[in-house]
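Quick illustration, no need to memorize.
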Amino acid sequence: MIPADDPVRLLSACVEGMDLSELYAKYGRIRKNQVTPKQLLKIIVYANMNRLYSSRDIEKACRQNINYMYLLDGKPAPDHAAIARFHSLHFSQCSKKIMAEMAWLLRRLGEVGSETVFIDGTKIEANANKYTFVWEKAVEKNLAKMMAKLPDFVAECESLYGLHIVYHNEISLRTLKRLRRSLYKIKAEEGIGFVYGSGKRKSPLQRSVEQLEEYIDRLKGYIQKLHICGKRNSYSKTDNDATFMRLKEDAMLNGQLKPAYNLQHAVDSEYIVWADISSRPTDTLTLKPFLKDMQENLSYKYREVVADAGYESEENYLFIEENGQLSYIKPANYEISKSRKYRTDIGRHENMAYDADRDVYTCKNGQEPV
């Protein structure tokens, strides 16, 4: 009933030729009549090939579609919970190893080699609200403003309540917590009660404590936001892993910053041999970690690396050269460099003669730039 050239047969044969020992190691034990991890992998991959992502839809397909029944090989159809657990708990932990096994299989079959790899990236919009942005510079600016107010506030509290909290003129979160403990200690010793609601006058101690609590909460929030940002310049409140990136313009020529991921992939002979997802907004910063990750998992490296102008940087050139590879990266100024105005500009280093022994440039007039 299933044709001999059906993709489901090719998928099954490919997975059978892969080493899935690391996937099986994620399981404690497998029951006799239970669907195996290998069969679950086949089902997940085949479902994604057919744009089926919901675990409930995949469960339904396993009960009704003959192609999925072929992959199950007589085993009972897994329920949606088992499919979701496999995807999130088992497959996600060894996905790179499985992808590397697929690349090795293609190499054994002679479909790919280790000569030239083509690298490119695409930005995929995250499933997050585009107005939930947090910018690192804004957080640092607000943090600096608050830190400028803290010395006066702490000095005032020390003067009012006879305390000595600050040492070496350094104020940190620990300093504020120590001040809070001292103020609450005064409250307990003097039996001062805090009042709330309209028409009630708050004591100076209560106003100091409330202001201090606000500073502590704000400082904790700023520290947490900077920690989430890491080396990025932004993130989304509803998806902390997503970074705000400028996506390509839509049909209405609307180009705007949206929470997104930078998906990188390496192609050899029209096969994707490696892929990775990054939160870095520019391709320039993704090339080095991507090549390192690919080389570590594939256990071999390509001799030539081809990429577009988005990956050009001196750091990337040096890394590829030191790694024993050849780089074919289109220069960012390639198009403008072909113009007559650019080629006749004697002030550009590209149009000057370079003396490697003296490490100097000489323009067409015989002068050396200062």
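The mean pLDDT is 89.
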